Amino acid sequence: LRLGQSDREIELRSEIREWLSNVLPEIWGSDSQPDQPSEAEEYAMRRRFDAVAFRDGWAGISWPEEYGGRGGSLLDQIIFSEECERAGAPEVFNRVGVGIIAHAIMMFGSEKQKQRHLPAILSGTEIWCQGFSEPDAGSDLASISTRAISDGDEWTIEGQKVWTTLAGFADYCLVLARTEPDQPRHRGISAFLVPMDQGGVDIRPIRQINGDHEFAEVFFNRASVPAGGLLGAPGQGWEVAMGALEFERSTNFMRRQVRLALDIEALVKTAQASSEELSASLKTRLADLLVRSECLRFTVWRSVAEIGKSGRPGILANASKVYWSETHQAAAEFALELDQALERPGHSELVTSRSKTVIDYLSSRAATIYAGTSEIQRNIIAERGLGLPR
Ligand SMILES: Cc1cc2nc3c(=O)[nH]c(=O)nc-3n(C[C@H](O)[C@H](O)[C@H](O)COP(=O)(O)OP(=O)(O)OC[C@H]3O[C@@H](n4cnc5c(N)ncnc54)[C@H](O)[C@@H]3O)c2cc1C
User: Fold this and answer.
1) Taking phi first (over 0 means left), then psi (-120 to 50 degrees means alpha), and beta for anything else, what does residue 140 get?
2) Which of 41, 40, 17, 14 is nearest to 27 (CA)?
3) Res 351 pLDDT > 70
4) Is 373 a pocket residue for ligand 1 (Cβ < 6 Å)?
5) What is the distance of C-alpha 193 from the center of its chain?
6) What is the pLDDT of residues 248-304, one digit of tens each?
7) Residue from 329, 144, 141, 155 nearest 248 by CA
8) Is the CB of 143 within 6 Å of ligand 1?
9) What residues are paired with 149 via a beta bridge?
10) Which of 139, 253, 256, 378 to mutate to test the pocket of ligand 1 (most atoms within 8 A of CB)?
């Protein structure tokens, strides 16, 4: 299952490497990857990456060409991700739009909505966020209370969302709102493409444990959705949300899985260089991380194969998500302890230090929560994957 050595793959890798070596200095703003960029510098680099990748035809490797993509396969996408991670390319800024919302639009959107939004999402000219969670509806998403009311052609939205990643930067939000309060709760929900730049939308950023301000609370006070802003049919919102979440939990993690494997590889190198100073238990944990990283790779490949067969990753999305987030957390914790064992600077200044190890550790705490908690993934795997009773 290792990525093959076909001529085509070798050629593709060398083409990607050449492109990256030409554009990365322009994207980084220097000859090498900046060491510890501030949050604002990092976002600016990521936005440059989105724009340059689109300009040069490297965005949306596996997207259809008619929507601005390259028309390649998911395997090409994995190869691209590997090369980007190895070269230190920034993460896609519009990751919610590209990795999640675009799939919902591809699955449920009209041709007009696809033409209007997909190329803009891919180029990063239209930043998107996902308005699903509410203060009283996270794991139990079907209990959302945000309402949408139609006055003929247009809809008006009233309610509150929370933990909305990139809301402070977004041009549009995919909002789940209750449209048919008399229907059973999963059926009375619809999905809307809501413009964020309007008086009825109030965004209040929330500071995260890692110091970033990536997510926010969003208040909709009679926010309007122009005609044509309903995604799918009225009452089809639950289906739209589940479709989006399947991609959020699978292909969206492909590049992160590659990064995690490289991080673990780097930990192995550090540990090898100082093997005598490390306890047997640290070495055993590192071996466990390596094994987990390989298992994760196979799980991601299996979900890619499943998408190839059925168009959807299905239950493997939940398996990849839970496995990725827990391995990521274990690796970040291990890295911190390794620094401590080797007495590297930074470990004692947890919150004030912006060292990569500390930021990774703090960021990793959220991984078992976002895109659905580990407990919820396990419930879904047990009930829908293994057919166990509720
Ligand atoms: C960094 C970050 C980014 C996010 N970005 C977004 C975003 O862009 N858009 C968006 O809509 N949301 C976003 N979220 C929200 C995320 O989807 C929710 O936090 C998550 O679904 C959990 O919901 P909750 O926080 O309400 O916790 P709760 O649902 O209240 O859960 C609390 C605890 O109870 C457990 N629990 C709940 N129900 C069960 C059950 N039936 N069985 C077993 N255990 C259970 C949970 O696993 C958890 O441990 C983000 C969250 C984070 C941390």
Assistant:
1) beta
2) 41
3) no
4) yes
5) 19
6) 888 877 888 999 999 999 999 999 998 888 899 999 999 999 999 999 989 888 888
7) 141
8) no
9) 156
10) 139
Cα of 369 vs centre of ligand 1, distance in Å, is: 5
Q: What is the pLDDT of residue 214?
A: 93
Give the nearest ligand 1 atom to 375 CA: 47
For ligand 1, whether the C-beta of 365 sits within 6 Å is no
Whether the CB of 163 sits within 6 Å of ligand 1? yes
SS3 category, 313: coil
Residue 3 has pLDDT above 60, yes or no: no
Residue 195 structure tokens: 């413009």
Cα–Cα distance for residue pair 105/232, rounded to 1 Å = 9
Alpha carbons 317 and 346: distance in angstroms, whole number: 36
> Which contiguous run of DSSP H or E holds residue 338?
helix 316-341
Residue positions annotated with a catalytic role: 248
Return the ligand 1 atom nearest residue 129 CA: 8
CA of 322 to the centre of ligand 1 (A): 13
Give me the phi and psi of 221, to 5 degrees please: -110, 90
Kindly state if the Cβ of 160 falls inside 6 Å of ligand 1.
no
User: Which residues are CB-neighbours of 48 under 8 A, at least 6 positions away?
Assistant: 26, 27, 90
Residue 4: pLDDT over 90: no
Residue range 196-252, pLDDT digits in tens: 999 999 999 999 988 889 999 999 999 999 989 999 999 999 999 999 998 888 887
